[in-house]
Fold this protein.
Amino acid sequence: MQADEIDPQAKAAVERQDLFPLPHSRRGVKIARLITRPAMWLQNRNPPSVGATVDRTIPGPADDLDARLYLPDANGPFPTVVFFHGGGFVFGSIDTHDWLCRHLTRESGLAVLSVDYRLAPEHPFPAAVEDAHAAVEWAAENPDAIRGTGEIAVAGDSAGGNLAAVAALMAAERDGPEIAHQALIYPGVGVEDDQQSVREHTGIVLSESDLEWYERCYYVNEIHQRNPYADPTKAADVSDVAPATVITAGFDPLRDGGKAYAEQLVRDGVPTRYENYETMVHGFMTLRQVDRAHEAIADVAADLADALDGD
Protein backbone atom coordinates (compact mmCIF):
# COMPACT_ATOMS: atom_id res chain seq x y z
CA MET A 1 0.00 0.00 0.00
CA GLN A 2 3.01 2.30 0.31
CA ALA A 3 6.30 2.55 -1.52
CA ASP A 4 9.66 1.96 0.13
CA GLU A 5 10.19 5.69 0.59
CA ILE A 6 8.21 8.91 0.58
CA ASP A 7 8.50 10.95 -2.60
CA PRO A 8 11.46 13.36 -2.10
CA GLN A 9 9.41 16.44 -2.95
CA ALA A 10 6.69 15.42 -0.50
CA LYS A 11 9.28 14.60 2.17
CA ALA A 12 10.81 18.07 1.86
CA ALA A 13 7.37 19.65 2.18
CA VAL A 14 6.60 17.58 5.29
CA GLU A 15 9.87 18.60 6.89
CA ARG A 16 8.95 22.26 6.38
CA GLN A 17 5.51 21.68 7.91
CA ASP A 18 7.04 19.93 10.92
CA LEU A 19 8.63 23.25 11.92
CA PHE A 20 5.15 24.48 12.88
CA PRO A 21 3.37 21.80 14.94
CA LEU A 22 -0.39 22.04 15.38
CA PRO A 23 -1.66 23.38 18.72
CA HIS A 24 -3.86 21.20 20.91
CA SER A 25 -5.65 23.81 22.99
CA ARG A 26 -8.51 26.21 22.32
CA ARG A 27 -6.23 29.19 22.84
CA GLY A 28 -3.60 27.71 20.55
CA VAL A 29 -6.21 27.05 17.86
CA LYS A 30 -7.35 30.69 17.93
CA ILE A 31 -3.79 31.95 17.65
CA ALA A 32 -2.98 29.53 14.81
CA ARG A 33 -6.04 30.67 12.87
CA LEU A 34 -5.04 34.31 13.28
CA ILE A 35 -1.52 33.59 12.04
CA THR A 36 -2.82 31.58 9.10
CA ARG A 37 -4.78 34.47 7.61
CA PRO A 38 -1.84 36.75 6.70
CA ALA A 39 0.25 33.70 5.78
CA MET A 40 -2.37 32.61 3.28
CA TRP A 41 -2.65 36.14 1.90
CA LEU A 42 1.06 36.09 1.15
CA GLN A 43 1.01 32.57 -0.24
CA ASN A 44 -1.96 33.25 -2.53
CA ARG A 45 -0.70 36.53 -4.01
CA ASN A 46 0.03 35.08 -7.45
CA PRO A 47 -2.53 32.32 -7.86
CA PRO A 48 -3.19 30.11 -10.87
CA SER A 49 -5.56 32.02 -13.12
CA VAL A 50 -9.19 31.07 -13.66
CA GLY A 51 -11.93 32.84 -15.58
CA ALA A 52 -13.21 34.65 -12.50
CA THR A 53 -13.69 34.31 -8.76
CA VAL A 54 -16.65 35.60 -6.78
CA ASP A 55 -16.56 35.91 -2.99
CA ARG A 56 -20.03 35.81 -1.48
CA THR A 57 -22.12 34.39 1.32
CA ILE A 58 -24.75 31.70 1.10
CA PRO A 59 -27.45 30.93 3.67
CA GLY A 60 -26.58 28.36 6.33
CA PRO A 61 -28.66 26.75 9.06
CA ALA A 62 -27.23 28.99 11.80
CA ASP A 63 -25.75 31.96 9.93
CA ASP A 64 -24.51 32.88 6.48
CA LEU A 65 -21.56 30.84 5.20
CA ASP A 66 -18.61 32.35 3.35
CA ALA A 67 -18.07 30.86 -0.09
CA ARG A 68 -15.87 31.45 -3.12
CA LEU A 69 -17.01 30.59 -6.61
CA TYR A 70 -14.32 29.71 -9.16
CA LEU A 71 -15.41 29.98 -12.79
CA PRO A 72 -13.59 28.55 -15.81
CA ASP A 73 -12.27 30.79 -18.57
CA ALA A 74 -15.17 29.96 -20.87
CA ASN A 75 -18.77 30.82 -21.49
CA GLY A 76 -21.17 29.40 -18.91
CA PRO A 77 -23.33 28.12 -17.46
CA PHE A 78 -21.25 25.40 -15.82
CA PRO A 79 -21.88 22.27 -13.76
CA THR A 80 -20.79 22.95 -10.19
CA VAL A 81 -18.52 21.11 -7.76
CA VAL A 82 -19.30 22.00 -4.14
CA PHE A 83 -15.97 21.73 -2.33
CA PHE A 84 -15.23 21.34 1.41
CA HIS A 85 -11.75 22.03 2.74
CA GLY A 86 -9.74 19.85 5.09
CA GLY A 87 -8.20 20.71 8.43
CA GLY A 88 -9.46 18.14 10.92
CA PHE A 89 -12.77 20.02 11.32
CA VAL A 90 -10.72 22.50 13.40
CA PHE A 91 -8.51 24.35 10.91
CA GLY A 92 -8.69 25.22 7.22
CA SER A 93 -10.57 27.76 5.18
CA ILE A 94 -11.39 28.83 1.67
CA ASP A 95 -7.97 30.51 1.53
CA THR A 96 -5.96 27.46 2.63
CA HIS A 97 -7.44 25.54 -0.31
CA ASP A 98 -7.53 28.33 -2.89
CA TRP A 99 -4.66 26.85 -4.92
CA LEU A 100 -6.27 23.41 -5.06
CA CYS A 101 -9.69 24.76 -6.05
CA ARG A 102 -8.19 26.92 -8.78
CA HIS A 103 -6.42 23.92 -10.28
CA LEU A 104 -9.59 21.80 -10.07
CA THR A 105 -11.42 24.52 -11.99
CA ARG A 106 -8.69 24.84 -14.61
CA GLU A 107 -8.33 21.10 -15.14
CA SER A 108 -12.03 20.19 -15.13
CA GLY A 109 -13.70 23.06 -16.95
CA LEU A 110 -16.25 23.09 -14.13
CA ALA A 111 -17.22 25.74 -11.61
CA VAL A 112 -16.06 25.08 -8.07
CA LEU A 113 -17.95 26.50 -5.10
CA SER A 114 -15.65 26.35 -2.06
CA VAL A 115 -17.60 26.62 1.20
CA ASP A 116 -16.46 27.57 4.69
CA TYR A 117 -18.30 25.63 7.37
CA ARG A 118 -18.41 26.06 11.13
CA LEU A 119 -15.32 24.69 12.84
CA ALA A 120 -14.78 22.74 16.05
CA PRO A 121 -14.19 22.93 18.95
CA GLU A 122 -16.52 25.93 19.03
CA HIS A 123 -18.98 24.12 16.79
CA PRO A 124 -18.71 20.32 17.16
CA PHE A 125 -20.67 17.70 15.22
CA PRO A 126 -23.19 18.06 13.63
CA ALA A 127 -22.56 21.76 12.82
CA ALA A 128 -20.20 21.13 9.88
CA VAL A 129 -22.54 18.46 8.46
CA GLU A 130 -25.53 20.76 8.67
CA ASP A 131 -23.58 23.49 6.86
CA ALA A 132 -22.36 21.12 4.15
CA HIS A 133 -25.83 19.76 3.47
CA ALA A 134 -27.28 23.28 3.38
CA ALA A 135 -24.61 24.41 0.92
CA VAL A 136 -25.29 21.53 -1.46
CA GLU A 137 -29.04 22.13 -1.29
CA TRP A 138 -28.57 25.83 -1.94
CA ALA A 139 -26.25 25.26 -4.91
CA ALA A 140 -28.71 22.82 -6.47
CA GLU A 141 -31.69 25.12 -5.93
CA ASN A 142 -30.01 28.36 -7.07
CA PRO A 143 -28.06 27.63 -10.27
CA ASP A 144 -28.51 31.16 -11.59
CA ALA A 145 -26.67 32.56 -8.56
CA ILE A 146 -23.56 30.54 -9.41
CA ARG A 147 -23.80 30.51 -13.23
CA GLY A 148 -24.69 26.85 -12.89
CA THR A 149 -26.51 24.31 -15.00
CA GLY A 150 -28.09 22.69 -11.95
CA GLU A 151 -25.75 19.69 -12.15
CA ILE A 152 -23.93 19.17 -8.86
CA ALA A 153 -20.96 17.16 -7.61
CA VAL A 154 -19.30 17.24 -4.21
CA ALA A 155 -15.62 17.06 -3.35
CA GLY A 156 -13.35 17.57 -0.38
CA ASP A 157 -10.07 16.58 1.18
CA SER A 158 -9.45 15.03 4.62
CA ALA A 159 -12.20 16.36 6.93
CA GLY A 160 -13.74 17.90 3.83
CA GLY A 161 -13.71 14.46 2.21
CA ASN A 162 -15.74 13.22 5.15
CA LEU A 163 -18.23 16.07 4.64
CA ALA A 164 -18.48 15.42 0.91
CA ALA A 165 -19.19 11.73 1.56
CA VAL A 166 -21.78 12.60 4.21
CA ALA A 167 -23.42 15.16 1.92
CA ALA A 168 -23.73 12.45 -0.75
CA LEU A 169 -25.19 10.03 1.80
CA MET A 170 -27.69 12.59 3.09
CA ALA A 171 -28.78 13.46 -0.44
CA ALA A 172 -29.37 9.78 -1.19
CA GLU A 173 -31.35 9.19 2.00
CA ARG A 174 -33.38 12.41 1.78
CA ASP A 175 -34.35 12.16 -1.90
CA GLY A 176 -32.13 14.92 -3.11
CA PRO A 177 -30.60 17.01 -4.27
CA GLU A 178 -29.23 14.78 -7.03
CA ILE A 179 -25.46 14.52 -6.90
CA ALA A 180 -23.64 13.30 -10.00
CA HIS A 181 -20.31 12.41 -8.39
CA GLN A 182 -18.37 12.54 -5.14
CA ALA A 183 -14.61 13.03 -5.07
CA LEU A 184 -13.18 12.00 -1.70
CA ILE A 185 -9.55 13.01 -1.32
CA TYR A 186 -7.80 11.12 1.52
CA PRO A 187 -11.09 11.37 3.44
CA GLY A 188 -11.25 11.23 7.23
CA VAL A 189 -13.56 8.24 7.41
CA GLY A 190 -13.40 4.80 8.99
CA VAL A 191 -10.21 5.45 10.94
CA GLU A 192 -9.47 2.79 13.59
CA ASP A 193 -6.52 2.59 15.99
CA ASP A 194 -5.59 -0.96 14.95
CA GLN A 195 -5.30 -0.22 11.22
CA GLN A 196 -1.88 -0.76 9.71
CA SER A 197 -1.78 2.76 8.27
CA VAL A 198 -2.49 4.26 11.69
CA ARG A 199 0.10 2.08 13.43
CA GLU A 200 2.82 2.74 10.88
CA HIS A 201 2.26 6.31 9.70
CA THR A 202 1.10 8.45 12.60
CA GLY A 203 3.84 11.01 12.97
CA ILE A 204 3.95 11.71 9.24
CA VAL A 205 1.95 14.96 8.84
CA LEU A 206 -0.60 13.73 11.41
CA SER A 207 0.63 12.67 14.83
CA GLU A 208 -1.27 10.46 17.24
CA SER A 209 -1.99 13.51 19.39
CA ASP A 210 -3.27 15.41 16.34
CA LEU A 211 -5.77 12.65 15.58
CA GLU A 212 -6.88 12.48 19.21
CA TRP A 213 -7.30 16.27 19.42
CA TYR A 214 -9.38 16.47 16.24
CA GLU A 215 -11.51 13.58 17.45
CA ARG A 216 -12.18 15.21 20.81
CA CYS A 217 -12.97 18.58 19.24
CA TYR A 218 -15.35 17.32 16.57
CA TYR A 219 -17.05 14.18 17.81
CA VAL A 220 -17.02 15.06 21.53
CA ASN A 221 -18.20 11.54 22.48
CA GLU A 222 -18.25 7.99 21.12
CA ILE A 223 -22.00 8.06 20.45
CA HIS A 224 -21.51 10.68 17.75
CA GLN A 225 -18.72 8.65 16.16
CA ARG A 226 -21.22 5.86 15.50
CA ASN A 227 -23.54 8.18 13.57
CA PRO A 228 -23.35 7.60 9.78
CA TYR A 229 -23.57 11.37 9.28
CA ALA A 230 -20.39 11.69 11.34
CA ASP A 231 -18.67 8.77 9.63
CA PRO A 232 -20.33 7.27 6.54
CA THR A 233 -18.55 3.94 7.04
CA LYS A 234 -21.10 3.38 9.81
CA ALA A 235 -23.98 3.41 7.31
CA ALA A 236 -25.72 0.07 6.81
CA ASP A 237 -26.39 0.74 3.12
CA VAL A 238 -24.69 3.21 0.77
CA SER A 239 -26.02 1.71 -2.45
CA ASP A 240 -27.87 4.87 -3.51
CA VAL A 241 -25.03 7.37 -3.14
CA ALA A 242 -23.36 9.05 -6.10
CA PRO A 243 -20.55 7.36 -8.04
CA ALA A 244 -17.24 8.05 -6.35
CA THR A 245 -13.58 8.75 -6.75
CA VAL A 246 -11.62 7.87 -3.60
CA ILE A 247 -8.00 8.95 -3.30
CA THR A 248 -5.61 7.83 -0.56
CA ALA A 249 -1.89 8.27 0.12
CA GLY A 250 0.50 5.46 0.95
CA PHE A 251 2.13 7.14 3.97
CA ASP A 252 -1.10 8.54 5.40
CA PRO A 253 -2.58 7.32 8.71
CA LEU A 254 -6.03 7.79 7.12
CA ARG A 255 -5.21 5.51 4.18
CA ASP A 256 -6.87 2.31 5.37
CA GLY A 257 -10.06 4.08 6.42
CA GLY A 258 -10.43 5.62 2.98
CA LYS A 259 -9.70 2.29 1.33
CA ALA A 260 -12.29 0.58 3.55
CA TYR A 261 -14.95 3.08 2.47
CA ALA A 262 -14.07 2.59 -1.19
CA GLU A 263 -14.51 -1.16 -0.67
CA GLN A 264 -17.84 -0.55 1.09
CA LEU A 265 -19.04 1.53 -1.86
CA VAL A 266 -18.04 -1.21 -4.31
CA ARG A 267 -19.74 -3.92 -2.22
CA ASP A 268 -22.96 -1.91 -2.30
CA GLY A 269 -22.79 -1.52 -6.07
CA VAL A 270 -21.64 2.10 -6.32
CA PRO A 271 -19.38 2.79 -9.34
CA THR A 272 -16.09 3.71 -7.67
CA ARG A 273 -12.58 4.51 -8.81
CA TYR A 274 -10.06 4.04 -6.03
CA GLU A 275 -6.44 5.08 -6.32
CA ASN A 276 -3.71 5.00 -3.72
CA TYR A 277 -0.71 7.24 -4.37
CA GLU A 278 1.93 5.01 -2.82
CA THR A 279 4.72 7.56 -2.34
CA MET A 280 2.49 10.35 -1.03
CA VAL A 281 1.55 11.72 2.39
CA HIS A 282 -1.62 13.11 3.91
CA GLY A 283 -2.52 16.47 2.39
CA PHE A 284 -0.31 16.00 -0.67
CA MET A 285 -2.78 17.54 -3.12
CA THR A 286 -2.27 20.93 -1.48
CA LEU A 287 1.54 20.73 -1.67
CA ARG A 288 2.36 23.12 -4.48
CA GLN A 289 5.92 21.97 -5.14
CA VAL A 290 5.03 18.28 -5.47
CA ASP A 291 4.73 17.13 -9.09
CA ARG A 292 2.57 14.15 -8.15
CA ALA A 293 0.02 16.55 -6.63
CA HIS A 294 -0.55 18.17 -10.00
CA GLU A 295 -1.04 14.77 -11.61
CA ALA A 296 -3.54 13.70 -8.96
CA ILE A 297 -5.52 16.93 -9.27
CA ALA A 298 -5.74 16.42 -13.03
CA ASP A 299 -6.99 12.85 -12.53
CA VAL A 300 -9.68 13.88 -10.03
CA ALA A 301 -10.70 16.79 -12.26
CA ALA A 302 -11.07 14.40 -15.20
CA ASP A 303 -13.38 12.15 -13.16
CA LEU A 304 -15.53 15.14 -12.21
CA ALA A 305 -15.60 16.43 -15.78
CA ASP A 306 -16.62 13.02 -17.12
CA ALA A 307 -19.43 12.77 -14.56
CA LEU A 308 -20.69 16.29 -15.24
CA ASP A 309 -19.91 16.51 -18.95
CA GLY A 310 -17.42 19.31 -18.42
CA ASP A 311 -14.99 20.39 -21.12
About this structure: The beta strands are 52-58, 65-71, 78-84, 111-115, 148-157, 182-185, 244-249, 272-277. The radius of gyration is 18 Å. The mean pLDDT is 95. The chain has ten helices and eight strands.
